[in-house]
């Protein structure tokens, strides 16, 4: 038979706050904690444990006056906690135990294995004190002393409530993606990356815990190839979304620069910000505009953040919206600047609900974190995992008045869909949260651009 060892941390302590009222009732329970170990001495981490407690009267082999059981789960340190008296009783009741009549012995079994019996020395006195003739008793607030009305006292180690802070519930398995290092008691909430789950969305399949520790599936519309629709999305229900994938291609060279590619939900995206200074047909894109010209032009143009070429290398260029819809094409042949619906499809592939996809403002939970690169963002870069491989960089933006802002803090991305004559849709990601923002802005802002395959 497999043997278990029990390392007692708090073997038997009352934890009973006995009030100074003759009519008050002492709580019926004895806090119990122990570290569970296997026969080789290793800690039984995050393991199901069944404990049975029997209280014998008079001797270690005396009559069993009470018996109960507990179904527990040890935490990452092998610790289990319970209250003797609050389990599932199978013999008598805890309240009926006559603590004042002879010695009592606690007998413990785990998973059917006898862990031994030991005499209970202090607890009976604490419990019996509620019926003692001294009239009343009181417990020290932070020490280990039980005071009697007649001036005597008993030392009961751990009797004060201060010795028993409330359990902190959470996932105690450090192998889980939602591990809580502060938790002292496992609440069975642990999630594991790659584990199957149900995201509750009937429009997704193959639901798993993704790199953002969120249950998410791929949209049903992304399961095939060619042009697909976004079911359930009123804004984009009739819009074709290309899900032809990357076909195994991992990079593409355009206008002298090589871009990484990433496939997400069947779409093939640039995994770098665009940096071309010319249109697809070779025509140069105007640049070097003074502030007044930039503010008033309705032709395509670009700038480099603070005119620093190092920013161009890392973050690419900032384009006004008119560049994204120029008939000469901003992206290479076979590629284009994504529409609002194509961005929604991307976000849906990362787990965002249809309702959130169509919302204006902050949306979703961790989809922004799944897109953000883990470098080049200002700390704390909240939630950044880049689990999608999108590798969003914080290129900042150029305002219509020609001033550059927020490099390393914010990543703005143009969408080729406009809202009206002066406004167009965009997305932005922030260094201090993991959600994605959708709204519209003046077409004269300078934002980063990503390309998606036709």
Key descriptive features of the protein:
5-stranded antiparallel beta sheet; 454 residues; 4-stranded antiparallel beta sheet; Immunoglobulin-like; 7 helices; mainly beta
Summarize the structure.
This protein is mainly beta. It is built from 7 helices and 30 strands.
Structural commentary:
- This protein has 454 residues and is mainly beta.
- It has two domains: 4-170, Sandwich (Immunoglobulin-like), CATH 2.60.40; 212-453, no CATH class.
- Helix content is 9%, strand content 32%.
- The protein has seven helices and 30 strands.
- The strands form eleven sheets. It has a five-stranded antiparallel sheet, with no helix packed on it. A four-stranded antiparallel sheet has the order 24-29-28-27. Strands 1-2-5 form a three-stranded antiparallel sheet, with no helix packed on it.
- A hairpin with a 5-residue loop joins β9 and β10.
Mean pLDDT: 82
Please summarize the sheet with the most strands: 5 strands, antiparallel
Q: Give me the count of strands.
A: 30
- How many structural domains does the protein architecture include? 2
Q: Please list the strands of the largest sheet in the order they lie side by side.
A: 6-4-3-7-8
Question: How large a portion of the residues is in β-strands, by DSSP E?
Answer: 25-35%
Instruction: Determine the N-to-C terminus distance.
Output: 65 Å
Shape: elongated
Structural class by helix and strand composition: mainly beta
Low-pLDDT residue intervals, each spanning 5 or more residues: 1-27, 123-137
């Amino acid at each position: 038979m497999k043997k278990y060892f029990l390392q007692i941390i708090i073997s038997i302590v009352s934890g009973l706050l006995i009030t100074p009222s003759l009519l008050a009732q002492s709580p019926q329970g004895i806090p119990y904690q122990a570290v569970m170990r296997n026969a080789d001495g290793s800690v039984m981490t995050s393991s199901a444990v069944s404990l049975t407690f029997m209280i014998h009267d008079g001797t270690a082999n005396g009559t069993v006056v009470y018996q109960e059981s507990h179904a527990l789960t040890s935490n990452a340190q092998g610790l289990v906690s319970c209250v003797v008296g609050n389990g599932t009783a199978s013999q008598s009741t805890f309240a009926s135990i006559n603590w004042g009549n002879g010695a009592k012995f606690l007998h413990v079994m785990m998973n059917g294995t006898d862990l031994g019996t030991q005499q209970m020395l202090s607890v009976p006195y604490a419990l019996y004190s509620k019926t003692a003739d001294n009239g009343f008793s009181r417990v020290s607030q932070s020490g280990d002393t039980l005071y009697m009305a007649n001036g005597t006292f008993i030392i009961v180690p751990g009797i004060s409530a201060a010795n028993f802070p409330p359990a902190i519930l959470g996932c105690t398995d450090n192998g889980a993606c939602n591990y809580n290092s502060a938790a002292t008691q496992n609440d069975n909430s642990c999630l594991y990356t790659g584990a199957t789950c149900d995201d509750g969305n009937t429009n997704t399949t193959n639901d798993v815990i993704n790199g953002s520790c969120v249950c998410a599936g791929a949209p049903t519309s992304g399961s095939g190839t060619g042009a697909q629709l976004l079911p359930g999305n009123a804004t984009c229900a009739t819009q074709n979304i290309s899900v032809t994938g990357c076909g195994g291609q991992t990079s593409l060279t355009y206008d002298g620069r090589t871009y990484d590619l990433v496939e997400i939900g069947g779409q093939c995206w640039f995994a770098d910000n665009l940096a071309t200074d010319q249109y697809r047909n070779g025509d140069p894109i105007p640049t070097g505009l003074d502030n007044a010209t930039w503010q008033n032009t309705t032709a395509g143009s670009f700038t480099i953040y603070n005119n620093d070429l190092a920013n161009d290398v890392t973050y690419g260029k900032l384009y006004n919206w008119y560049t994204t819809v120029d008939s000469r094409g901003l992206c290479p042949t076979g590629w284009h600047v994504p529409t609002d619906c194509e961005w929604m499809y991307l976000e849906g592939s990362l787990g965002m609900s249809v309702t959130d996809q169509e919302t204006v403002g902050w949306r979703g939970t961790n989809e922004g974190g799944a897109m953000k690169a883990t470098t080049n963002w200002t700390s704390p870069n909240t939630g950044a995992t880049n689990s999608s491989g999108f590798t969003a960089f914080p290129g900042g933006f150029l305002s219509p008045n020609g001033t550059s802002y927020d490099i390393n803090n914010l990543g703005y991305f143009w969408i080729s869909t406009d809202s009206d004559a002066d406004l167009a849709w965009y997305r932005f990601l922030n260094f201090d949260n993991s959600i994605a923002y959708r709204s519209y802005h003046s077409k004269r802002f300078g934002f980063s651009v990503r390309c998606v395959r036709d």
